[in-house]
What we know:
Blueprint: H1 20-37, H2 39-55, H3 84-108, H4 117-132, E1 145-147, H5 153-162, H6 168-171, H7 205-222, E2 233-238, H8 245-248, H9 251-256, E3 262-268, H10 283-293, E4 297-301, H11 308-313, H12 318-325, H13 328-337, H14 339-345, H15 351-356, H16 362-366, H17 375-387, E5 393-398, H18 423-432, H19 439-442, H20 455-466, E6 481-482, H21 490-493, H22 503-516, E7 524-528, H23 539-544, E8 546-547, E9 567-568, E10 574-575, H24 580-591, H25 593-596, E11 602-607, H26 609-613, H27 617-625, E12 631-634, E13 663-664
Parallel strand pairs: 1-2, 2-3, 3-5, 4-5, 6-13, 7-10, 7-11, 8-9, 11-12
Helix pairs in contact: 1-2, 3-4, 3-5, 3-20, 4-5, 4-17, 7-24, 13-14, 24-27
Amino acid sequence: MNEPHLPEPSETRSGADPDPAETRDWLDSLDAVTRFSGAERTAFLLKQLIDRAAAAGIPLPGGMTTPFRNTIPVQREKRMPGDLFMERRIRSLIRWNALAMVMRANKQYDGLGGHIATFSSAATLYDVGFNYFFRARTEAQLEDLIYYQGHSSPGIYARSYLEGRITEAQLDHFRREVDGKGLSSYPHPWLMPDYWQFPTVSMGLGPIQAIYQAHVMRYLSARELVPRGDRRVWAFLGDGECDEPETLGAIALAGRERLENLTFVVNCNLQRLDGPVRGNGKIIQELEGVFRGAGWHVIKVVWGRLWDPLFERDAKGLLQRRMDEVCDGELQNYKFNGGAYTREHFFGKYPELAALVADLSDDDIMYLNRGGHDPYKVYAAYAEAVETRDQPTVILAMTVKGYGLGGSGEAANDTHAVKKIQLEDLKKFRDRFGLPIPDEQLEDTPYYRPPEDSPELVYMRRRREQLGGYLPARHGGFDPLPVPGLDGFARLLESTGERAISTTMAFVRLLQTLVRDQELGPRIAPIVPDEARTFGMEGMFRQLGIYSSAGQRYVPHDAGQIMYYKEDKKGQILEEGITEAGAMSAWIALATAYSNYACPMIPFYIFYSMFGFQRIGDLAWAAGDAQCRGFLIGATSGRTTLNGEGLSIRTGTVTSSPGSFPTAGPTIPPTVTNSR
Length: 676
């Protein structure tokens, strides 16, 4: 099938064209270059034109966005190799069991809670990943690291139930996990230490941690501690979650460092908890501009394959024009109000579009699928993402919140809070997804798991065996690290006599002693948010080097000094800039390296008193939930040290705790107070 029809010059998003013939000449020339010289030559010429226009002072568009359609044209899509019908069957079983789990929990304890709508929109996004892309740990490779969208946890549990990893009794204790009998509401490694890898439901924390996880993966590889290979970090998040500053605040780092090992999948169901994300605009277009500007490869998955014939038949490009015109609030209306409404209000604006769908019934129009619900489109996007080099990738997949719930919540403003479904809608759900649940059992919403030798379970096991095993899975075992003897700290244990030194200076001397240790030294990771000189750590710049994925492409002005600013691809210090959240996220990645990399590390996050610590409270809780092992150090504290800094900084003295990092033999005595 050919790619979607390109609009005529007078029908572009920029409005009416005063000279369509001249525009046609330019576009024909562009098409000819692409056809005969390839996409790279076309991109080069466009860059030259942009540079020339900028040099001439011609105003350029503020944000680079493409038409509201799929980034990957049909003829360039990689074909999904599996059994589409079998996978849809399995996905339907997962949908049902996720729904049943939440409904049964709320029947037993009214108002217990749980979320149905998020997973119902994201089921295909996860299913394609589990079937083809998410690799588990084997003797030959470490697992891919996956940050699941917190509210989608019922669907992940439902998959594990079909796989035989979670029992029906555990499903019946959803949100009642006391004594380990049930399942935590959201991803929670502390409560489920062999299952979840990362706590992600506090929105925004998953994305920033995923970025710094990919960053740390490169850091460990550059230091020859853990080979990176083609291991990947996947982060699943919602479009509404992108309002959180932590979600988008660090994406420039990923673009700057060209973290090709990182993929974001944004479930663009166009709705937050209370209503539309950008009712008057287009969240997918907005995010495309933001990520593209930060250096990411952007893949939009807007429509499913049922739209492809319509685009191919649209000779004038009016369908694309209409797609570009509508706002997200209207897109929500179309799914909520049904096919007849969509025929009138979407296609009905232009007579040619109305004629385009004249042979479709209202139900046909209702089921014109969005890209995030089409496994072929999702597979093509994932396949391109894992093959992308020198850039992180973000996949913006349009879905429907509450997909399949019918009148009980599909695309409704209150669908996020839906925990129960009316019996009539439950019947429609069952029929739509072909589930073998008789009418007389629907009221009880029973779980359904086919026999062990059923085609569905055999297929599921085979897919996961090819990818190394089951996920999610957390690995807690590790080889302990040796603790250096006290004789190595003799200088620190002696009195300084009449000369007083600050506790920060004592800590820096302790750190210098640790990094010189032959065995333990390489596992020490000092992390600072642009305050190393304040803490008296600049002497370590030359000794250890500051990690930089680019090395050092310049000669620093202080190169002739003993303590010059040395950046190095194998640098040991992570100087993360003015970002406490980024520094803490890097610390979390290294403080869980014993689990996620089978390589225990001893990270020190050195922050500026309460002023630096108060910014990362939520991340500190996430660190506890993730069972982090490392040190949080308040490097400046006390009313004497902070005099003159103002009340916003002199709010007290805070230091934090050493985690129980892996050791063999006696542990190093804690020198700071415990914060939890």
